[in-house]
Automatic annotation (TrEMBL):
Residues of the signal peptide: none
Keyword terms, alphabetized: Amino-acid biosynthesis, Arginine biosynthesis, Cytoplasm, Lyase
Fumarate lyase N-terminal domain: residues covered: 13-307
Broad class of where this protein is predominantly found: cytoplasm
GO CC terms: cytosol
GO molecular function, one term: argininosuccinate lyase activity
Protein name stated in the entry: Argininosuccinate lyase
One Pfam family this sequence matches: Lyase_1
Swiss-Prot/TrEMBL GO biological process terms: L-arginine biosynthetic process via ornithine
EC top class named in words: lyase
Recorded family membership: Belongs to the lyase 1 family. Argininosuccinate lyase subfamily. In the N-terminal section; belongs to the lyase 1 family. Argininosuccinate lyase subfamily.
Catalytic activity: 2-(N(omega)-L-arginino)succinate = fumarate + L-arginine
């Protein structure tokens, strides 16, 4: 302890006065980086193990360090560790306590290492674990979507363009569109993981170290694919964290789109689905209200994740090599992006299986808005009418429908024949919603048979994840 009873700074040797109290608080990261303790301890254990292997530490020293670190880990887990602001960050807090506990051997742990490669290692290890749990939650959500899509493979709803009824589609097909968005997100997450899973340990402060370290060994101990190639790059770049936030932003963008549709569909204007009460809340003033808060919040939380991506890109911009203290600012955006994505995925994965389709409402809505107009045009083309003329004929029929308040399928043959004499009795087959969706029977089409087949292929892709 120093005179003012503050712990002595591990870097205090060349300093002649105490750090300004405000500066101490301003420069400290312990308020948020304590989260890295588990991975910091794992990194230190791997480092000490390697130092013993190459003869820099004795086996006894290694064991003493590992024992000390494990005891500290247990204390942190039990909530008994007092984090100190004057020890700045998680790395120095743990190392200082280790030294306090085991004495001189504790001081040897930092041989051949710097906080610069230490923090880069910790954040990669931490992010890798979170990537794996996010991947699992994403899989749970996607599986829920596939189950619902399978159940609703033949349920007819309006498909929209410009949020106006365009053509009938199946609800299962709509859900599979969400699945595909998330499938690409999953791919991006795994791609990001490859670049996260490289070991910067051994890069030391910036130039490497004079000790005979074995970087491949620490990489292997920590489950990294390989050591990074360049020490300057290793301690300075946070592109892997930016990449994670880019993944997170795209995922949130997709979840926000699905959220928006859930909000619309639960409204009394649409009333396409029923969302159980446990996912909704009420209004303190309007007793009749049941609000879709969960999807609305997911939609809203998208903004903060985009913010974190922008923050990290801006943090990294124009930074000269190698480590700069700027990089301490990488943690809060990454942590919050992780927390937000996990919560939103959990909300969605819990909510999707609970959705109940209001099939009659969907069907009625699909019937309004002349959603089979394109089918009538295609019918005319099959009877030899050029497509542009067919478009014109159907346009006139729709105009008549608007005037008389009738859907195309509700007109008599005579009424339809006013617009084209090639129309015969068989037209009614294509004007039904069932006929319309069943006719789009190719890969990627909305026909119930295609939805069922697509669900089967998608299940295969999910199963192959292992
Ligand atoms: N707390 C620091 C960070 O998060 C650790 C690295 C400090 N390195 C240094 N040279 N000051 O970036």
């Amino acid at each position: 302890m120093s005179q003012n009873d503050q712990p002595i700074k591990p870097w205090g040797g060349r300093f002649t006065e105490a750090t300004d109290a405000f500066v101490e608080r301003f420069t400290a990261s312990i308020g948020f980086d304590y989260r890295l303790y588990h991975h910091d301890i794992n990194g230190s254990i791997a480092h000490a193990t390697m130092l013993a292997k190459v003869g820099v530490l004795t086996d006894a020293e290694r064991d003493q360090i590992i024992e000390g670190l494990e005891a500290i880990r247990a204390e942190i887990v039990a909530g008994k560790f007092n984090w100190s602001i004057s020890l700045e960050d998680v790395h120095m807090n743990i190392e200082a306590l280790l030294t306090q506990r085991i004495g001189i051997t504790g001081k040897k742990l930092h041989t051949g290492r710097s906080r610069n490669d230490q923090v880069a290692t910790d954040i990669r290890l931490y992010l890798r674990d979170e990537i794996d749990s996010i991947g699992k939650e994403l899989t749970r959500l996607q599986t829920g979507l596939l189950d619902l899509a399978e159940r609703e493979a033949a349920t007819i709803m309006p498909g929209f363009t410009h949020l106006q009824t365009a053509q009938p589609v199946t609800f299962g097909h709509h859900l599979l569109a969400w699945f595909e968005m998330l499938e690409r997100d999953y791919g991006r997450l795994q791609d990001c993981r490859k670049r996260v899973n490289q070991s910067p340990l051994g890069a030391a402060a910036l130039a490497g170290t004079t000790y005979p370290i074995d970087r491949a060994y620490t990489a292997q101990l920590l489950g990294f694919d390989a050591p990074t190639e360049n020490s300057l790059d290793s301690v300075s770049d946070r592109d892997f964290a930016i990449e994670f936030c880019a993944f997170a932003s795209l995922l949130m963008m997709h979840l926000s789109r699905a959220s928006e549709e859930l909000v619309l569909w639960t409204s009394s204007q649409f009333s396409f689905i029923h969302l159980p009460d446990r996912f909704c809340t009420g209004s303190s003033i309007m007793p009749q209200k049941k609000n879709p808060d969960v999807p609305e919040l997911v939609r809203g939380k998208t903004g903060r994740v985009y913010g974190h991506l922008t923050a990290l890109l801006t943090l990294m911009k124009s930074q000269p090599l190698a480590y700069n203290k700027d990089n301490q600012e990488d943690k809060e955006p990454v942590f919050d992006a992780i927390d937000t994505v996990k919560d939103c995925l959990r909300a969605f994965a819990d909510m999707i299986p609970a959705i109940e389709a209001r099939k009659e409402n969907m069907y009625e809505a699909a019937k309004r808005g002349f959603s089979t107009a394109t089918d009538l045009a295609d019918y005319l083309v099959r009877k030899g009418v050029p497509f542009r003329d067919a478009h014109e004929i159907v346009g006139k029929s729709v105009g008549y429908g608007v005037e008389t308040g009738k859907d195309l399928s509700e007109m008599t043959l005579e009424e339809l024949q006013q617009f084209s004499t090639v129309i015969t009795d068989d037209v009614f087959k294509v004007l039904t919603l069932e006929g319309s969706v069943a006719a789009r029977n190719h890969i990627g089409g909305t026909a119930p048979a295609q939805v069922t087949a697509a669900v089967g292929r998608a299940r295969g892709r999910v199963a192959a994840r292992g």
